[in-house]
Structure formats: C-alpha cells, structure tokens
C-alpha cells in the first residue's frame, strides 16, 4: 500500500459499488486509516446507474457499509446527471452496446462525484485479475496507447482528480477470501444486462491460466509494465469538451456524444469508429475519447 | 455512364440487360484481383475466399518476397539454411525459398557474367524423438521418414539442396548424449518450461548446423498465427520486456542471423496453399502438452481467430509497435565482433547516438534482460557463490521460474547436465556483467 499513493490530510473517495472489491477496499482503507493514523479523509462514492433489480439492491449494501465503517456516502445517479437511467437506455437501444453507455457514463459520473466531494483522489477496487485482463484486451485490440498506461497504479495525474488502484497486485481470489473470512457484507450478483461477451473470453482465459500457473496474472502485469513502448507514440491530445467541460480529446466528450445520440433518437452515434459529425477525419476516435470502457470493469458484479 | 469505367464495354448500343446480369454473376464468383478466374471457394469466409488460386498464390508469395526484400533477409552471396519440421509452415517457407532461388538461377543462367551470384540453400531437420514430448512421444522417427524428407528435398532442384537431419541430442559431444538430453528435460519440473527448453535446444541445434556448414542465414517458417501465440504467451510468462526481440523479421542475436519471412502469412493461408499445390507435409511434431501455458494460449488464439479473422494480425501488429532491439536488423558486417566493437566505441563516444546499447542476455533463452532485472539477479548471485547459483543469476526471471529447479541440489544437477554452449554463454554473460559493473570506474580512469 505504501506506493506513495496517499499523503496525510488528503480527501479520498472510494468508488463503492457494494461488490466484493470495493467493499474490501473500503474496509481495508478505513481500518488502516484508523489503525495507522494515515490522516485521510475517506468518503464512499457510489453511482446509481438506475438498473432495477441490481443496482438498487447493491446500493443497499453500500448504505449498510456506510454505517458499518462510519464513512460518509455520496450517491450520484445517471438520472440526475444525464436524465437517463440504464433501464431507459436499454429499453431504447437493446442489449447491444449498452455496456458502452454504462461504462462511459459511469467514468464521468465518478469524476463529477469526486469533484462535488472536493476530494484529491479517487480509489477504485480494480484487482490484479482486472488489470491483467485489460492488458490482454489492449493487445487484442491493438490499442498501444492504452496498453502503455493501463498498468499504471495511478492514472489521470495530469487531470483534475487522479485515480488509483491499491489492489493492482492483489489477486481476485485473495479479495474473495478476505471478504469471506472477515465476513464482510457485500453484494454479489452479475449485472442483469448481459455482461460483455468479449471481455468474458479474456476473463475465462485468465481463470484457465491461473489454474495452471497462479503467478501468470502478476506476470501479465509485469509484462505490461515492462513493454518497451516509445514515448513518442502518438498519444491523444487532451482538451476539454465544449459542452460540459470534461476532459476530452475531441470536440465533445464521449458522454456528451452518446447522450446527444440518445436524446436525438440516434443511439448509434458515438459507438464504434464512427465518422460522426463531430469527429470526422479523426481516425482514432475510440482511442482518443476522454472516457473509456476498456478500463472500466466488466459491467456487472464489480464496481467502477 | 453505365458502360464507361471498369466494364470496358464498347458496344454501341450501350450495356444490355443481359450483359449487366452476366457481369453481376461474374462478380459474385470472380477473383477480386484479376476479375477473370473463378474464386477458389465461393462463399468461404475471410479474404482468401475472394481470390482465384493463381492470385492467392501470388498474393502469399508476394508477402514472402516483400518481407525478404524489404528487410534484406537474403543476399546473393548468402548460404541459407531452412529449418524444416515437416509441418505446413516450414514446408511453404522451403517452397518459397526454392522458388526464389530457382528464379535467381534462371537469371544467372541467362547471363552469367552480368547477374549476381545465386544464394545456396540447405535444409535442416531436427529429430527430437529422443526427448519424447507429448502423447505421441514413443513414435520413433524411423529411417523411412528421414528418407521421405530427403526425397522431398531432392525433388526441389535444381539447384540442389543439402539436407541435414540431426538428432537434438547432438548438442552434446559425448557418447551418452541421448541419456543426457533426456535427463536434462526431465529435470525441468514445469510442463511449459519443458516445452520452452526444448525450443531453445532446437535453436541451439540449428545454430550448430549453420555454423558447422558455413550457413549465413537461418530461415524459420514462423507465421503470423504462431507469432501471435508467442506474443500472448510471452506476455503471460512475464517476458514483456524481451518480447519485441523475438517477433521481428530479423534477429541477429545469434551467430547465424535468424529471419522470419512468413511473418505476415496466416496459418490458414499456408495450409490452403499446401492443399492447393499438393505440398507434402509430415506432421511429426506432436504439439503442446495439454497442461502448458503454450497450449492454452494457442487454443485461446484459435478461438479469437474464429471470432474475428483478423485478430492474429492485430495481435502481431500491436506487439510490432513495441520498440525492437538493435539486433533486430541484418548486421552490416558479419564478422561477429559487433558487440565487442560497439562496446569499444561506446567507451569513446558516449554521447554519440550511433553507439549501440549493450545488452545482457539470459543464458538459456537468450532474451535481453531488463537492467533492473539483472540487478536483482546480481544480488541472488552474491548470496549463493556456487557455479549453478551464478548461472541462475544470469537467467531471466521467466526461465528461472519455469525451467530451473528451485531446489539448490537439483539446480546443481541440472546445471551439470546443460550442454556446453549454454554454460559457455553464461560465462560470457558473467564477464560482460562484471565489465558493466566496473565500467564506471574504467571510464573515470580514462577520463583522469
């Protein structure tokens, strides 16, 4: 934990979904903070995507955690931020690409929530399995820019609020076991809107690898850290969205683009390598968008 | 308007309906390239289904030739050794090298005084039956198989090619070599490690053949699909740093530079060509053990490739964006003293961009070591103070984990069983490591 992630007096938001990773993270952070006088101001930050039968239940868990660990909780909903719940979105676009919307919106929601809480950092419960999966997916997709930064323990340091992943080297198994032995109160149900099949491929592969050689997961992360990637590799320029002011490499950020599509009844807008009205001529639309779905987890039982 | 452009229709009355429908029909089945012949497999998925056999062949050979010429893999004075396993990839590599050689020979025969000399070709087969990998291990490669290969190679002439069939245990000079190589491989606890060690021994054998017979290039038949698997399995084994070294067109880490002219050809294309041209293959290598990382990766890649036919190329392209090493190009002077020379040069022109960075290599897999990686191994070396311990310190962390036994006694045993060239490599490595460690002092002496 002592990777110079935190310094005393900082305000830290814990991205909390009620799932095992974020619950263990919240527990460990609050315990260590108390025991070793880290001097951190901790908050729980939850995003309500508006998924009936899933998020409403998991939020109950977070609310219990709030009391159990004595941490203030802030809940932000898609409804109030964007005017759409995931239920509405799925009703409109069906079960294809819905995870793109969810991922893009969640990431931005998390940043906005963090800004509202005036925190210095956001921590998320991404574990080693998640990072390894992301490394593989970026190789499979040919995304060299993200490949270079997906293994950083802290990302977005140049942005307003950096995010870090204290569980970067922690196996998912360890987290599950920790939660089990500490009898932590967490919520474990897959998202009802089918999880991303492609990510599922990679996830299954990693589980198979782990069976043969557990350290393969950490080896993948090590490879990801050691990759010789030229620093001159074209990285997307970061600007701000003309609409909402969020960081974006395009004229409009991905969330605004998707939202525009929803409101205009053109849900395909902004999905895939579209040559939309706002980004024509830019080849790497996906690569450059300020928000991304690949770095977020498989939407489902996990957290942000 | 309708008949201008591509149709080339010259009839005065314009295109009739019949003409148009005929064209449509033709378009559906004609080759996308020559537009004349029929496609090989109408309705077949992927790009290959859209070519006629001739264009398909031309396209594949074109990729090979482009790789060879744009990376100057083969020069007229070269003596090329093609590694032949019996499988489709090395079969196609052999065929293409032969086609190229034949063409050069024809040019030479036409005007012997004006054209360049023709490169010569040899074929090497490494017989690994003594080690016994995989479930079909007991299958001895008998004389008949070797004979078959010999005939196959002799059919590929003129120009005639020399055929070398060498058992893998020949990496040892001694009499009990078969036992020794068996014990060595059996001493590796990890299944993946066994496979990888075998791979390194194979390369050692090929290099030995090349050296003994004066070959100047070694052609491997590695295709895109195999390289994609290598990318993922290296990532999984934690070898992200050294990965770019292995997947370039040229790799001159070795005494005889290794070239991969089929780097841009898919396994699927290669097997189609074998079928199309009736290229005879002999499936001898028994593949991976089911419980190895390598086999898991190759089935994963196969699954992905079925899902998306360009996935393998994407993987190789992604990894291709990683920075290659200085040895990933054809060396200009083949006297083998490049490393030494560069080191001398570095001493004098520290600021020069031309100076080639010194790299230390793993003694087993010859992958370049990351600097801090070798630092941590140095500390391991100072702890042990044994020959085998020193050796382990000069291996990459991946080899240390999956090939070397962790127990000190077993490690000692393993070390004594290693073939001479590998332990020799380690000694060289030790010197360069020592040199590296004291280099600062040497420099300061020079400066003072």
Automatic annotation (TrEMBL), chain A:
Gene Ontology CC annotation, any one: mitochondrion
GO annotation terms (biological process): tRNA wobble position uridine thiolation
Record-annotated tRNA(Ile)-lysidine/2-thiocytidine synthase N-terminal domain positions: 12-196
Protein name as catalogued: Cytoplasmic tRNA 2-thiolation protein 1
InterPro entries: CTU1-like_ATP-bd, CTU1_C, Ncs6/Tuc1/Ctu1, Rossmann-like_a/b/a_fold, TilS/TtcA_N, tRNA_thiolation_TtcA_Ctu1
Gene3D superfamilies assigned: HUPs (3.40.50.620)
NCBIfam families per the UniProt record, alphabetical: TIGR00269 family protein
Alphabetical keyword list: ATP-binding, Cytoplasm, Nucleotide-binding, RNA-binding, Transferase, tRNA processing, tRNA-binding
SUPFAM superfamilies, A to Z: Adenine nucleotide alpha hydrolases-like
Gene Ontology molecular functions: ATP binding; transferase activity; tRNA binding
Domain Cytoplasmic tRNA 2-thiolation protein 1 C-terminal: from-to ranges: 239-269
Binding site for ATP: 15-17, 21, 47, 125, 130
Pfam families xref list: ATP_bind_3 (PF01171), zn-ribbon_14 (PF16503)
From TrEMBL, chain B:
Protein name: Cytoplasmic tRNA 2-thiolation protein 2
Gene3D superfamilies referenced in this protein's UniProt entry, alphabetically: HUPs (3.40.50.620)
An annotated GO cellular component: cytosol
Alphabetically ordered keywords of this record: Cytoplasm, tRNA processing
Function: Plays a central role in 2-thiolation of mcm(5)S(2)U at tRNA wobble positions of tRNA(Lys), tRNA(Glu) and tRNA(Gln). May act by forming a heterodimer with NCS6/CTU1 that ligates sulfur from thiocarboxylated URM1 onto the uridine of tRNAs at wobble position.
Sample GO molecular function, one term: nucleotidyltransferase activity
Domain of life assignment: Eukaryota
Pathways involved: tRNA modification; 5-methoxycarbonylmethyl-2-thiouridine-tRNA biosynthesis
HAMAP family: CTU2 (MF_03054)
Homology family: Belongs to the CTU2/NCS2 family.
Upper lineage: Eukaryota, Viridiplantae, Streptophyta, Embryophyta, Tracheophyta
Cellular localization per UniProt: Cytoplasm
GO biological process: lateral root formation; protein urmylation; tRNA wobble position uridine thiolation
Pfam families for the chain: CTU2
